[in-house]
Amino acid sequence: MQTHEVFNQSVPLYGHNVADDATLLDGLVREGAEWALDDIGRLGRLAGTEQVQEWGRVANENPPILRPYDRFGHRIDDLEFHPAWHELMSAAVANGLHGAPWSDPRTGSHVARAAKFYVWSNVEAGHTCPISATYAAVPALRDAPDLAAIYEPLLSNSHYEGGLRTPLDKPGLLATMSMTEKQGGSDIRANTTRAIAQPDGTYRIVGHKWFTSATMADLFLVLAQTGAGVTCFLVPRVLEDGTRNNVRLMRLKDKLGNRSNPSAEIEYENALAWRIGDEGRGVPTIIKMVNMTRLDCLIGAASGMRRGVVQAAHHATHRKAFGAYLIDQPLMRNVLADLAVESEAATLLMMRLAGAHDRAVRGDQAESTFLRLALAVGKYWVCKRWPAHAAEAMECFGGNGFIEESQMPRLFRESPLNGIWEGSGNVAALDVLRAMGKNPHTVDAFFAEVALAGAEPSIERVVNEIRSQLRDLADAEVLARRVIEKMALVLQASLLVRSGNQAVADAFIATRLDGDRGSVYGTLPRGVDFAAILDRVSAKVG
């Protein structure tokens, strides 16, 4: 008797084009980066290969190891990575995810880069942290033109090289930010790290940072106190003479997810630094970096949703239960379609914000005003939606999804991260209130964007509800999450009506605005065009 015959199991999802995503590709054209379609397609095919997917798995399962000392007892504060990490980093850098818009600033370059980040994040999320931080460091670094002239070309070079070397001797550099302290967290004005000015114009940094990620970076953008207040500084890990700067990696954080990315406690022991921007203006300087990484948090969450629903739909296509494939069973079709609707709304919003960012960088004030509020709203909402989405996608596999080999637990562990990093939910909500109070034009710009959907009754009704709630801000903080949720939904609905798939738009409005659904995924009403929606998440292999 055969006891080990394998049947009715799915197959690994290899050999598909991760960029085969109509919402992504349509957005690329609409937002001014049609010229990048071929590049995105090539990267998508690479991301879907078995080899690259294995790099992601292995890098995650073999996190970095801290080597504080060499064999003789010398302090080296080095990190050891699995070769798969370096393969992923090399591919990301070669494809310009870290800096192509700065070295090749053509129209749509930031949109193209966002699309690549979305596609490549599908492989493994941990290594995208240093990629994101390096990309985001450039606008902040430009507050010190002399430093930017030296380091910006190296931060945008398409050559990756791991390890510690003198920055100017390496063909390409990576950057990270170092802000969070144990007593302050997001309250960076409470930082106690100090910067002491030196006669030659440099500074010495002394302090303890509680949580700094991408600690293999060559350059750290560090916040420290001077007599004038919080100020931003550039701290290299290795100095020009080849000696190591006094940047001490005390211990690596044992994180829920994002395990391939080394996050550490750091002590700066009179570390040599150069000031970026004016003294006391460190927050406005570092915010230029933070806002760009916030957009990447949203992109990463949208990418994770897409990966979850595509993997779930692939499994359901190959697995039978009760005499029929899961994909053909009404209840599973409802769940998968609901996940697809959420994913498409997130991707569409991501592409619109990437387009606004691209135009804002080029001096479009209207787009900059819109982005100021919309990014905070979008980052809050999309990142909040991902954990429940990842859990439901995992459940589509049944017990198979709870097993590490399915890769769904890795996706699930990753899902809360983007809602926490670069400002947790409450910080994002407070940022929305701050933007409204500081510049009321951001509110006008936001609703002008929503109004582009035309006379859509459900959108108009919810917009009126929001405006009514905004008139009385006596309990603004208490009600902030409720209001921001509605703002995100009307913005997504407007984008779907204008630029999305009709079946997806109808399902979104019926459930997210009109409330014709339950509290969990898989409660879409009758009349939804399930076939049209599910066709958009079927992975085409080969």
In CATH, the topology of the largest domain is named Butyryl-CoA Dehydrogenase, subunit A, domain 2
Estimate the strand proportion: 5-15%
What's the mean pLDDT score? 95
Which value, in Å, is the CA radius of gyration? 23 Å
Q: Which outline best applies?
A: globular
| H/E element order | HHHEEHHHHHEEEEEEEHEEHHHHHHHHHH
Estimate nothing, just give the exact number of structural domains.
Answer: 2
From the N-terminal CA to the C-terminal CA, the straight-line distance is 36 Å
Major sheet details: 7 strands, mixed
Structural class from helices and strands? alpha+beta
Q: Could you name the ranges where pLDDT drops below 50 across 5 or more consecutive residues?
A: none
Q: Helix count, per DSSP?
A: 19
- What is the class of the largest domain in the CATH system? Mainly Beta
Domain Acyl-CoA oxidase/dehydrogenase middle: 177-270
Domain Adaptive response protein AidB N-terminal: 8-161
Domain Acyl-CoA dehydrogenase/oxidase C-terminal: 280-436
Organism: Nocardia tengchongensis
Protein architecture, described:
It holds the Pfam family Acyl-CoA_dh_M. With 542 residues, the protein is an alpha+beta fold. The longest helix has 37 residues, at 282-318. It has two domains: 22-280, Butyryl-CoA Dehydrogenase, subunit A, domain 2 (Beta Barrel); 284-537, Butyryl-CoA Dehydrogenase, subunit A, domain 3 (Up-down Bundle), CATH 1.20.140.10. 52% of the residues are buried. It contains 19 helices and eleven strands. 51% of the residues lie in helices and 13% in strands. Strands 3, 4, 5, 6, 7, 8 and 9 form a seven-stranded mixed sheet that branches. A two-stranded antiparallel ribbon has the order 1-2. Strands 10-11 form a two-stranded antiparallel ribbon.
